[in-house]
Amino acid sequence: MKKGIAASSGIAIAKVYKLDMPDLTITKTTVSDVTAEIARYSVAVEEVAKDLVTIKEVAMKNLSEEEAAIFDAHALVLSDPELKSQVEGKITGENINADAALKEVSDMFIGMFESMDDEYFKERAADIRDVSTRLIAKLLGKDLPNPSLINEEVVVIADDLTPSDTAQLNKNLVRGFATNIGGRTSHSAILARSMEIPAVVAMNTITESVNNDDMVILDGSEGIVIVNPSKEQIEEYTEKRNAFIAYKEELKKLKDEESVTLDGHHVELVANIGSPKDLEAVIENGGEGVGLYRTEFLYMESAQLPTEEEQFVAYKAVLEGLTGKPVVVRTLDIGGDKELDAIDLPKEMNPFLGVRAIRLCFQEDEIFRTQLRALLRASVYGDLRIMFPMIATLGEFRKAKGILMEEKEKLVAEGIEVSDTFQVGIMIEIPAAAVLADQFAKEVDFFSIGTNDLIQYTFAADRMSTSISYLYQPFNPSILRLVKNVVDAAHAEGKWAGMCGEMAGEAIAAPLLIGLGLDEFSMSATSILSQRKLIRSMNKSEMNELAAKALECGTMEEVVALVEAAVEIK
């Protein structure tokens, strides 16, 4: 039995398919015709660009538009003028072959980005590695493994799975995967959970421990792999797998049920989405609305900014698609780990604490106003709730709402219909706003707590930094107290409070958040039914007592132990 990190739940029992990389060893040589060598590099770039289009088309069959957008990022890396100029500069300046020049340049960028404790740059390192590997293989005339050609049930074993590899996996045939490296927040792990493929990562030497056609058991819930299991082990895990499948089928029966506790307390379970294409999953999983529409993906799909009309069509589609259910649309949240070709963002030492989200919108006034006009025009087609991200002060909220109201007045003056019932709220992700929630609550219509950023800002710890990962503590009493402060402040003014961070979809969190009085839980669509089942098994009055005890704990570990002793978490 080999142990790793549980990355995606479920159990797989199948033969091994090793995703072996070809030998991409590069020999540095001197070239006499640098023009021909640059042309050879350009042809490779063109061919890889075509490959990426094909890969994205395959990926779109398994992934949402938001998740498949990673290949747009790869296309941007491929066409990056800095990469091109540095590679061509090395070829001409040192008279060396294109593959050696590319390897030296890409290794420099990868090393530089990997050394930074910043999510955006770490992700760019992975993207550069993926793209440069494709280019080097093309230059060497080698074929990379093609997971989309798998034609039987297998468990994929690899040193690592690139985002390209993961997106090409056919979830009807690939029963699971295990890798030597990786973590729960790596691209491959996130995509595996979205595709509901069991996965175990960070196994160190799993590729050395198995051969093609070996039988393996992979438990993505416990983070273990058993190589060539005994008959008894196969029987044991077959039963566990069947129980897990039966559990998932049982959850489907809750699609049209209410999210209500045993003693009658109702909450809303809604979904996070990135585009209108994600609505199908929301409806299939019984989502009661959308708690976070990440509009930045509209902007990231093209090198050009989306027009008012293009945005209007997308917002209208979501509002109409949910037939009157609430839709919380977050205004443009660019910066930090998300960049746009169309907007020249300043290069900052810490972009997460710099010009991003509402701060950028204030600087790019026309872009902000265009989005607000599109939202206001769409407001008549459903229950629209506009949310401003990264609000730190009351002044920022007043300014943002003021711009919104100015655009509303202009539209009305033009004879364009605008709803009078849309709500305006803020995302609580900065501790300053959480602490001052009682004052914000007098002016906003709602709060939605973005725990991903709230946690890392509260602990001053980058949640993507493995060396300080112990500080990513969603259940620390300090975070629970901030959540309580926000919820209590909202309720004191007759407003509602939701949560749209990862914490809202975690089973351990549900009892605490019910006890703290959270009104709305927004999460990945695939998490909705399991949270609904859990919430329907609780008593609100008991959870009130549990949350009160948790607030008096000193550590996250004490809180988790308290919850696990009180509630059966599956």
Short description:
This protein is α/β, with parallel strands linked by helices. The chain has helices at residues 34-59, 65-68, 70-78, 81-94, 98-114, 119-140, 163-167, 187-195, 206-209, 231-252, 279-284, 296-300, 308-321, 358-363, 365-378, 394-413, 431-435, 437-440, 451-459, 477-492, 509-516, 528-535, 540-551, 556-566, and strands spanning 2-3, 5-8, 11-18, 154-158, 174-179, 199-201, 215-219, 224-227, 268-273, 290-294, 326-330, 383-388, 423-428, 446-449, 496-499, 520-523.
| Overall morphology | globular
Poorly predicted sequence stretches spanning 5 or more consecutive residues: none
- Radius of gyration equals 25 Å
β-strand number: 16
Domain module tally: 3
Largest sheet: 8 strands, mixed
Number of helices: 24
Q: CATH superfamily name of the largest domain? A: Phosphoenolpyruvate-binding domains
CATH class of the largest domain: Alpha Beta
SS class: alpha/beta
| Separation of the first and last Cα atoms | 23 Å
| Mean of pLDDT | 90
Strand content: 5-15%
Strand adjacency order, main sheet: 1-8-7-3-4-5-6-2
Quickly give the CATH architecture of the largest domain: Alpha-Beta Barrel
Give the helix proportion (percent range): 40-55%
What does this entry look like structurally?
With 570 residues, the protein is α/β, with parallel strands linked by helices. It has three domains: 2-20 and 151-244, Glucose Oxidase, domain 1, CATH 3.50.30.10; 34-140, Orthogonal Bundle (Enzyme I, Chain A, domain 2), CATH 1.10.274; 253-566, Alpha-Beta Barrel (TIM Barrel), CATH 3.20.20.60. The protein is 47% helix and 14% strand. The protein has 24 helices and 16 strands. The strands form two sheets. It has an eight-stranded mixed β-sheet. Strands 9-10-11-12-13-14-15-16 form an eight-stranded parallel β-barrel, surrounded by four helices. The model has no long low-confidence stretch (mean pLDDT 90).
